[in-house]
Specification:
The chain is an alpha+beta fold. Helices cover 24% and strands 32% of the residues. Strands 3-7-8-6-5-4 form a 6-stranded mixed sheet. Strand 1 and strand 2 form a beta hairpin.
Length: 190
C-alpha cells in the first residue's frame, strides 16, 4: 500500500507534468494563416489578416477599359466595392466570368476592394520561407512582371500565394492616381 506522502508526491509530479506547456513542432508554429480559394482551376491563398468578409456575387457592373486586374463594381453593405480578377496573375484567360460566384473583401485596416473567386477553401498555414518563385507569363510581359510582383510565390501544393500588402498598395495607388483625374477611368476604384 502507498503511504499518503508517496501518493501526494506522485500526484504533485503528475500535476507538474500536466502544467508544462505543450512542446510545439517548429513546422506548426512557422507560417501564416491564409484563406485559400480557387479561380479558373488555379488555387490561391491570401493572408487571412487582410480578409474582412466573403459573399456571393449578385451583380457585377463591368468597367470596360479599366486597368487590370480591375473588372467591375458591385454593391456590398450599402457601398460600392471595386472588384478585381486575379486570373491574370498566373496567365489564365480573363475573358469569361461565368463561374466566379464569390467575392473576398480585402483591405489593410478597412474593406478596400473585392477579389473574385470560384470557390472558397479553408484557412491553411503557409510557411512563406518554403515558397517557390512565381512562374513567368510569356504573354503581355509588362503586365506579367507587375502581376508576379503581387505574388509571394507558389507552395509545393501549387497554391499561388498572393502578396496582400503589395496588392492593397497597388489598388491604393491606382485609387489615388484616378481620384483627382476626373476622367471616366476614375470609376475603376471607389
Amino acid at each position: 500500500m502507498t503511504s499518503p506522502n508517496e501518493a501526494r508526491h506522485v500526484l504533485e509530479e503528475r500535476a507538474r507534468q500536466l502544467a508544462r506547456p505543450l512542446a510545439r513542432d517548429a513546422a506548426q508554429i512557422a507560417g501564416v494563416d491564409m484563406l485559400t480559394f480557387s479561380v479558373s482551376r488555379e488555387r490561391f491563398a491570401i493572408d487571412s489578416r487582410y480578409v474582412f468578409a466573403a459573399f456571393m456575387l449578385q451583380d457585377l457592373v463591368p468597367l470596360p477599359g479599366a486597368t487590370a486586374p480591375v473588372v467591375g463594381l458591385t454593391r456590398w453593405r450599402g457601398d460600392v466595392l471595386t472588384v478585381i480578377d486575379l486570373r491574370g496573375l498566373v496567365g489564365a484567360a480573363t475573358n469569361a466570368l461565368d463561374d466566379l460566384g464569390r467575392v473576398i473583401v480585402v483591405g489593410a485596416s478597412s474593406p478596400e476592394f473585392g477579389i473574385l473567386a470560384d470557390t472558397l477553401g479553408d484557412i491553411e498555414r503557409v510557411d512563406i520561407a518554403r515558397l517557390y518563385p512565381p512562374t513567368a507569363n510569356r504573354s503581355r510581359e509588362a503586365y506579367a512582371r507587375e502581376a508576379r510582383a503581387m505574388l509571394l510565390g507558389v507552395t509545393a501544393e501549387a497554391i499561388h500565394v498572393v502578396d496582400a500588402v503589395a496588392l492593397i498598395a497597388r489598388q491604393t495607388d491606382v485609387r489615388a492616381d484616378t481620384d483627382g483625374a476626373g476622367s471616366p477611368s476614375s470609376l475603376s476604384t471607389p
